[in-house]
Amino acid sequence: xxxxxxxxxxxxxxxxxxxxxxxxxxxxxxKVSAEVFPSYVFNTAPFFAGENAAGKPIDATLSTHLKxxxxxxxxxxxxxxxPDTFQGIGLAWNTFFNKKEVGLPTxxxxxxxxxxxxxxxxxxxxYEWNFGIxxxxxxxxxxxxxxxxxxxxxxxxxxxxxxxxxxEFAPMWNLTTGVGLTHFSNGNTRxxxxxxxxxxxxxxxxxSFEGPDKSRRTTEPLLTSPDFPTEPKSAFRRHMTYDxxxxxxxxxxxxxxxxxxxxxxxxxGIIGMNFNPMYNISRHFRTGLSADFQYDESANIEAHIxxxxxxxxxxxxxxPPFIEQGSFGLSVRTEFVMPFFSIxxxxxxxxxxxxxxxxGWYNTFxxxxxxxxxCFIQIGxxxxxxxxxxxxxxxxxxRFNNGRSRSRKI
Length: 410
Fold this sequence. Notes:
4 helices; 56% strand
């Protein structure tokens, strides 16, 4: 994976302190955690089934995690709106019990953990997501690692979604256990890119520490304003916002013409733009439509290979017309909103397009990270026709009509 992609993938990791310390002066709780994730590796390729140099199935993985997180104090706007939400950074070490062919990937990631429901006075059901980058994979190499036709780059994106039981067994001490799904991929920036998928459990322990904010008041109404301490005040009212996102990426491309897949040399550029009006239903959710444009240099090139061309890596082809590489679509979007981050999921259909590579449905998944006022960084991924990996979406956006007064109306 090229250095440019790695730097862009790390931008959300570097952006969190900007908003945290620029807009919120106190942090209520700091937390340090240690966890172990034993997991099962899905058999999605012959390599995992045992067609490898070791001659054994690769069906298990183990990772150890160290994390730091914080929760905002209730004397801040976001602390009152999201009182049980921790966000922070994590470091993990992974083994697939086949170091020679797979490697020992190390992950560096952002995560967020928040309460879904209180099950007992000291027991809660939480969700958690992780998003970051892993480095240290032993990638496919025709000479040194020819059987690993799954991983094509030393660095891969890391995504984990989990459900967690959180038990406070002693003051400021918590025991956690749960289950989760994990996905590793390079977003088609290198081939092969079959992806590595796991499902498994987790168990951990954490220690919390009081931060500089000593004003936590558990008896204070959650939506009470500091300016009107005796009168409840609505911290949210429904309204429209409008996200404008510009993104880009590169990708590799393989073609199939009555033969095994042939990976074309070089990289292809992608640029795109979304305009996404969203109705903010609550402080946690907004939904709406998105007008989507994307230009992909690799789209529909199979139809423009000169007759008689020998199919090989450095083959030549005519550049397809703009209408075959550009596409305009409309998608339905839902966004889950939390402090500093939002997760946007979309389902769309290209309406103005031509060719089999663009004439279809697409799915999007994106993480938006606030960096300054109403600006955010977006890192996302697009699937084509619900199953085919398409491309990354790495960009920057701006949210219109998102004034701070939205959280201050009576």
